């Protein structure tokens, strides 16, 4: 399970302290905190600047006079221009929540070390997860989430902006996770890190001791909770919202009850059963009665969320009514959250996500499956 990615922070602190004493002229490779992952470590943060276009310079020249307190909770994304203008607001934290499919062979922690938005924390999607299941990155318990988030230094009063390295992908998952645990002041960065860099804004390249230690501490806290050990101090308080997360049994009941419209974010080929699932031992097809809206259809070519009118057309085309409840699913509960993000822009803030999604459903020999 990917929750073992991070190791004990005390040992990591000693290793980092030793490594940081070396000359910054000779980049070091270290793997002690994150087994199986290789990092290019530099002693000092390096900022990379890109020449902004003319329209970007106009935005940079006029700093916004408001903080996350004034952002609408009905709008789930913020622009890179807004974030750049408000990056140093004291009531805001930025999270790099990058995660990639295994076949992409991309290392999110290594990419964070190479280039991230200045001051961003790293949120490990695979690590901050339920350790009692073989299903990937499932929602952790309230206690485990509170312990990990406390270790990252996040407080209930903070406004959070979450981004990822693809545009809008895994950031939507972390946006949903925080909402499940009662944190309302959370937004996704529209277009993510690619949009940030294309707009000419600085990135930071460093193996920051503080960021690495916080990520390690979050992993250690998760492990302690699931091992029944004492964790502290826990400064973040959760308020679980059960209506935002569904189980296999709820999905099974919904096949008959039809209380919720079920929308699947996977590709049409996987939904129809024409393409094999990427994970072994998983049946092909879809939950009976569900409909398919591939998550990519909610994004434009720059991986930003479509305007509300275009989003509505996508859901209208599949007969999804905004007046009726919706539950979304995908392969492992990541891109289903992009559907929830789009529906949130349309005013539906109560969309449930089936956490286990097709990896759980398709692996169960007793669950019904349809194919087209």
TrEMBL record:
Pfam families: Rhodanese (PF00581). InterPro entries: Rhodanese-like_dom, Rhodanese-like_dom_sf, Thiosulphate_STrfase_CS, TST/MPST-like. Residues 88-205, 256-370 form the Rhodanese domain. GO terms for biological process: embryo development ending in seed dormancy. Residues 262-271 have a biased composition (Basic and acidic residues). One of its GO terms (molecular function) is thiosulfate-cyanide sulfurtransferase activity. GO terms for cellular component: cytoplasm. CDD domains: TST_Repeat_1, TST_Repeat_2. It catalyses: 2-oxo-3-sulfanylpropanoate + [thioredoxin]-dithiol = [thioredoxin]-disulfide + hydrogen sulfide + pyruvate + H(+); thiosulfate + hydrogen cyanide = thiocyanate + sulfite + 2 H(+). Residues 262-286 are annotated as: Disordered. Keywords: Repeat, Transferase. Catalyzes the transfer of a sulfur ion from a donor to cyanide or to other thiol compounds. Substrate preference is 3-mercaptopyruvate > thiosulfate. Involved in embryo and seed development. This is Sulfurtransferase.
